[in-house]
Design brief:
A two-stranded parallel ribbon has the order 1-2. The chain is 74% helix and 1% strand. With 333 residues, it is an all-alpha fold. The protein is built from 11 helices and 2 strands; from the N terminus they run βααβααααααααα. Helix 2 packs across helix 5.
């Protein structure tokens, strides 16, 4: 319990201690718990990466071991100055202390996200040790905290040494290819399927309505309804039919979002021009938008799916032309 003689230490709004009010023993305890947390996070990253990115997993294992060394040095100092009992104090107990987004709780972090989060962790830990060293009066404690601040500042170089040790050019190339494949399976493939469905399948109802009514507002409403409805359907279908565990395609939520959003965008692209009151102006712009959408689909297939551009363009243009013709014939009839 916090002594009643120090009521200012407890915020009446957040019930968190202020960093400036911590004793030197509590600062050491906070540093120990922070090092423990960082080591656990690095090990969780390593476990996530071990199957597909073994070399990068080894890098995070090495970083966790270094955090263990920091923690042990801090515990030894605490034992020498304050005894065996370490106060229970963590980041979330201190107001104004650096907060961390719990990204490590996500089940589908990318390799680059993990590397970026590790760099952020080292930067915030360095800042903490600098602040802590500045307010301690004990020479040994000040020296240790200063050494740890320097160590955290040098972790980037240490990580580079670990990468040089574990990440050979071939290993890095293999991991980059695996990461690219995962990106394609999780985002590009479902997004491309959605864009194709939204761009092509909505051509018939939109242009059928346009030529049947020659009313731009009605056409816009039908096009918007068709686009949003198709997006919701595609999103739920993508998310529900494969949980990604066996296929390795990644988070169903991410795939569902990619598919649903791109389906909606694909349909709205040639529905929005019908906000223009003049029918032929709106129709001309909508047809130009359709051409751009089909070209984008062909480019994505060529860029990410390695489909020859000419073949991709012919497939997309032929399919789009047939659907467009069907809509015009039905609407015109």
């Amino acid at each position: 319990m916090i002594p009643e003689t120090r009521p200012a230490l407890l915020s009446s709004l957040t019930f968190r201690r202020r960093f400036a009010d911590l004793s030197e023993q509590e600062v050491l305890a906070l540093a120990i718990s922070s090092e423990e947390d960082d080591a656990r996070i690095y090990r969780s990253f390593a476990e996530r990466l071990r199957k597909d990115f073994p070399a990068s997993a080894a890098v995070f294992d090495g970083m966790a071991v270094e955090e263990d060394g920091h923690r042990q040095r801090l515990i030894d100092l605490h034992r020498a100055r304050f005894g065996e009992v370490i106060p229970l104090i963590r980041r979330e107990h201190v107001a104004g202390f650096y907060a961390r987004r719990p990204v490590w709780l996500s089940q589908n972090l990318s390799l680059e996200t993990m590397r970026g989060e590790a760099a952020t962790m080292e930067k915030t830990a360095h800042d903490f040790y600098v602040r802590a060293a500045a307010r301690t009066q004990d020479a040994a404690t000040r020296k240790l905290l200063g050494d740890l601040a320097a160590a955290e500042a040098g972790h980037e170089r240490h990580a580079q040494r670990l990468e040089e040790k574990h990440l050979s050019p071939d290993a890095r190339s293999d991991e980059d290819q695996t990461a690219k494949r995962q990106f394609i399976l999780t985002w590009v493939q479902p997004g491309l399927a959605g864009l194709m469905d939204g761009s092509v399948s909505t051509l018939a109802p939109i242009f059928a309505t346009a030529f049947a009514t020659q009313n731009t507002w009605t056409t816009f409403l039908v096009g918007s309804a068709a686009s949003v409805g198709a997006g919701i359907s595609m999103g739920f279908t993508e998310a529900a039919h494969d949980d990604g565990v066996l296929s390795g395609r990644g988070s169903p939520l991410k795939r569902g979002i990619a598919s649903g959003v791109m389906t909606t965008i694909g349909g709205l692209g040639h529905a929005l021009p019908y906000l223009i009151p003049d029918f032929w102006t709106a129709t001309t712009i909508a047809m130009i938008v359709v051409f751009v959408e089909l070209w984008a689909i062909a480019w994505i297939q060529n860029r990410y799916m390695e489909t020859p551009f000419v073949r991709a363009a012919l497939q997309v243009v032929l399919g789009g032309a047939l659907v467009f013709a069907a809509g015009v014939l039905i609407g015109g009839g």
